[in-house]
Amino acid sequence: MTAPLLEVANLRVRFPTPTGPVEVVRGVSFTLGRERLGIVGESGSGKSLTGRSILRLIRPPGEVTADRLRFDGKDLLAIPEREMRAIRGARISMVMQDPKFSLNPVMTVGEQIGEALAVHERLGRGQVRRRVLEMLEAVQIRDPERVFGLYPHEVSGGMGQRVMIAMMLIPEPAILIADEPTSALDVSVQGEVLRLMNDLITRKGMGLIFISHDLHLVSQFCDRILVMYRGRIVEECAAGALDRATHPYTRGLLASVPRMDETREELPVLDRASWDREGEAA
Amino acid sequence: MATTTREWLLTESPASRMQARLGRSYRVLLALLRNPLAVLGALIVLALVVLALFAPFFATHSPYAAVLADRLKPPSAEFWLGTDELGRDIWSRIVYGARITLTIVLLVAAIAAPLGMVVGAVSGYLGGWTDRILMGITDIFLSMPKLILALAFVAALGPGIENAVIAIAITSWPAYARIARAETLTIRNSEFISAVRLQGASAARVIVRHILPLCTSSVIVRVTLDMAGIILTAAGLGFLGLGAQPPLPEWGAMISRGRAFILDQWWVATMPGFAIVIVSLGFCFLGDGLRDVLDPKGSSRQ
Amino acid sequence: MSAITLRNLDVSYGDTRVVEGVSLDIAEGECFGLVGESGSGKSTVLRAIAGLAPDWTGEIELFGKPRGRTIDRGFAALCQMVFQDPYGSLHPRQTVDAALSEPLAIHGIGGADQRVPEMMAACGLDPRFRFRLPHQLSGGQRQRVAIARALMLKPKVLLLDEPTSALDVSVQAEILNLLKRLRHEQKLTYILVTHDLPVVSFLCDRLAVMRQGRIVEVAPVAALKSGAMTDAYSRELVARSADRVTA
Predict the structure, then answer these.
(1) Which residues of B touch C80 (CB under 8 A)?
(2) What value of ipTM does the predicted structure carry?
(3) Neighbouring chains to C with at least 3 Cβ pairs closer than 8 Å
(4) B201 vs C106: CB contact, 8 Å cut-off?
(5) CA nearest C196: which of C226, C235, C165, C234?
(6) pTM above the 0.90 mark?
(7) Can you tell me the distance from the alpha carbon of B270 to that of B286, in angstroms, rounded to the nearest whole number?
(8) Which of A269, B155, C48, C157 is the most buried (most CB within 10 A)?
(9) CA atoms within 13 A on the CB side of A202
(10) CA distance to partner chain A, nearest, from residue B281 (Å)
(11) pLDDT digits (tens, 9 = 90+) for C173-219
């Protein structure tokens, strides 16, 4: 039994508001090994913030606390910013949703991916270029030389996302956090990008945290699933066992999605009152 | 059911249009109060308004009574900021001069801002030749240095406060037109604009009820920041003898007449100068604070 | 009676032809799905019908009468649209009440004080929300407001441009139920544009598949449900969307 890559215990994220502090992530605990872990939730569930707090990307006035947030023997909340910067991108990377917004519009694709590498490794320009071209090939971009010189607005959504993946994987991190990586893409391109990610991750033995609102997508792609609702994890199960999920929220989500061979007159709607213990002390 | 006024204003479910509007203004006010510089700016502007409104209560002497025996006296207990070359109390003249400054600033804002906004919004929404023509005119005005343009108008219209106001307003509106046009171009293709067009709204209705309200924040910020420039332009005109005419205690004119005594009786020129600087700074701080609070990229992305 | 007829519709944006040779006949009271991937032109067809994409050639008829090039009040009273993005389709400074009263004011129809709460109730909006601003509402609530707004003029045809794509899964079900109920209650005709095929299965009677600006297949929804689509591209689309875990 190998030691987990990442250990999270009682993670809490708090934001001040005019009407008092609000806890958006309330005691989330999980471990991540060399596996694909999916975190599923709707908007407001705290799933994105969970991912960002691992990389300490949440700035004041947001507050992050945890009993334990360990990666590679280091307490991620305690180490100085300089050490955290060395981890961000190099050991733990993040792919975000929309390449239109996450890629720098005034730098070419090659420059950006090269920068991701140059920040963490000292290499000559020729070596950087070679690694970038290799990476572009690895993400199945057919004409790497040409794409190297293109700007983000000149590439399609799917290709932009592949560029993002290349950028995030080139320093060979141990963990990849993917925050809705395919939500902005067409259904047909989604499959390709996911297969690509899967391929790269299994080959390099990385851990993946896949954050999404799409329960079905996550169930097909990941090994284990965490379902979040309002800042808490309400269900944890293996991907294949989703149809045996126990929590009413998960079952409600599964039931309320229309099916291709739909015959129901009305879709079942979540009855939150039956299990939403909002008034409970955190 | 007793609720405090604060709760009533901040409630998540307003029960009337007015409550919603007041609530919004209250939130803006709260946000503004959190910025110390903005508070300082607001206090300065408030002081200006109070001084102007209640000048007779704050002035110690008449601003016009010339007592030659008292000429060019330094600041003292009797004459707080000294006297000018005709023996008039400088403090009292500054207090009454606040009325002139405030009048000029408010009139210019009231003329230039709405004019600029309408031109900009119409230009941005209708596009095509309307846009080109209106923006061409705007560019012509923008390309000329403000003070020179104001000078030209005042020279043509004759000296006096009213003409100074008109001249400064004419030089100020192009900036607001540009801002309004930029905002309009951003909003024009939004789905909520498409939705209201689909309901059969005329272009006039769309511009007036839907686009202009979204331009006001940027324009308010710009106007506040421009106040300093307007004051300085008015002072410049006054300095050149083209704005308020004597014996009106306009601050720029006071500086002008104090030039001759600047080495020995420095207070005659510098006191009105301080007044201009302080008021300009006040408007700048306030404008900055308003921008932080009203800027669409900052607050309304909730 | 045909509610909407399109004949050889071509729509261009500038120099690019985005929709080509589209011909459709949509019956009154029908719910017609228009599916395809992004770039297929399906939203553009809707915008052309609405009058938001003015550069079109061909024929568009609404209840037998040809459609003019502009949006006029008569058209607005017959046909309305619900947009995809609940965050963008409501004016950020207008309360719910103002947004719902606007169409009545434009058409000189009185009784807003009565009709607004009625419509809010019909669309499942809590009366407490009446004077809230859009940023104080959730995505699902905003979309309900958008639907209520579209129905204020009592149109006969509703154009729905991916009405639930931007919503959470649990909220989507509520909105889909609402749309279905409203259609039956008010005898509306829907044209629903979506990339999500199961939504079509739930709501629609017939569908057309579009690809690169053209219609590739028109079929009854039964064909979609039983996997009996005939065109190769349609079958591919179905295959990619299918094989989901069922509860």
Answers:
(1) 198-199
(2) 0.88
(3) A, B
(4) yes
(5) C165
(6) no
(7) 24
(8) C48
(9) 8
(10) 30
(11) 999 999 999 999 999 999 999 988 999 999 999 999 999 899 999 99
